[in-house]
Amino acid sequence: MQNSTHYQADVLERFIPISLDRLISDLLTAELLPAEQHNAFKQFCSTYTSLFHAQSHTHLQDLKRLYLPFNPDRDTLMTAQENTSTQLTHLKEKLYLILEDANYEQISEADLNEALNKISPYGVQVSVDFGDFAEVALFYRGSAIQQKLYRNWKKLSFKKQPIDILIYRRLFVLLQPKNRQQWIEHFINNKKMSVQKAEKKADAALKVFGISNDNDVVYLKLFKDIPREDLEMQFPNTRIQMRLFDKIKLAVTGGGGTAGGVMATIGKLSATIDPISALIAIGGLLGLLWRQIAKIFSQRAKYSAMLTKNLYFYSLDNNMGALTYLADTAEAEESKEAILAYFFLLLAGETSRANLDQSIENYIHEKYAIPMDFEIDDGLDKLQQSNLLSRCDQLINAIPLVEANSRLRQQWDQVIDNKVFV
């Protein structure tokens, strides 16, 4: 049996898990739109997505400019005026808006605490100290169930059994470690340290995050298919812990063997007066103790290898690259919402928001077997911004395809001629 992943039928996602190209192709092959309008609709989709890409590119460049002073991977010079609290606030505001446009959901504090109190299905138990950060934010897109095979030692089962694991198909993590001044204040106020000692401790704390200056740093991380119980694995200050089962196993096997070795060594020492024999007996005891200690280190090494493997295969992007990934995702989601809204307005003519929303959700459920909560307001707002609706109050109507393509071409010509800045 292979691992399988499926979306939850009882959870309505805003995310449309269909590529933009496939969505357009499926709309045209569904025989809903008259054949003579297919080419005009293709032109509409092509021009609209090109215009929206130009707008998204401008927003992305602005976001990159805001993030540059806080990027831990930056290799360009920075003036003292760049790194300001105001710029950091603007960065987070715009970043959270892009996450909203990309249909990410923020993980609540209650869900995060629940996840932190569970042991990973991979057998890796880790902990994280959130006090090391000035801000932590986690967002996910796509809550799904992944079925995997595991041995359940609690039920004394040697055969692997299928279990269901709640995973996040996409996980975004924002981490802002404390800066040097914040660490110094923490050690002085909470640990009652002197200023000199607090400064040394602050420098040591910053090294954990690879920070060597006084500037604020913001880490942006993207992962895929992360089990909810493994959220701690995505933090740089995780501490690997031994599971209770492993502690008992080491205590039974190691403790029994060590106790027996100690007793045997005492017996040998009491029965011999030969110094060489005594040294051999003591050496044997030390070797036995070392083997038991080595088992503990071996177990920790196994956990570290599992952690490294998971992060290697599940990591998608970091920092500046994560911004580009999110912007591309938001652009695709926004385009899909606008195109779906316009397509079904062409079919329905004048209709209400509720009816239009229901028609789109019914189509996606019937075509792809995916229940979802379509963002009808987002789709209509984007059409309104592009002047593609003839009315948008109690009843909504879209302008005809020929007129829509004409208006979009005019807008594109303005962009090309640099008459407007999108």
UniProtKB/TrEMBL annotation:
Pfam families linked to this entry: DUF3754 (PF12576)
Family annotation (InterPro entries): DUF3754 (IPR022227)
Nucleus keyword on record: no
TM stretches of this protein: 248-266, 272-290
UniProt keyword terms in alphabetical order: Membrane, Transmembrane, Transmembrane helix
Name of the protein: DUF3754 domain-containing protein
Protein species of origin: Methyloprofundus sedimenti
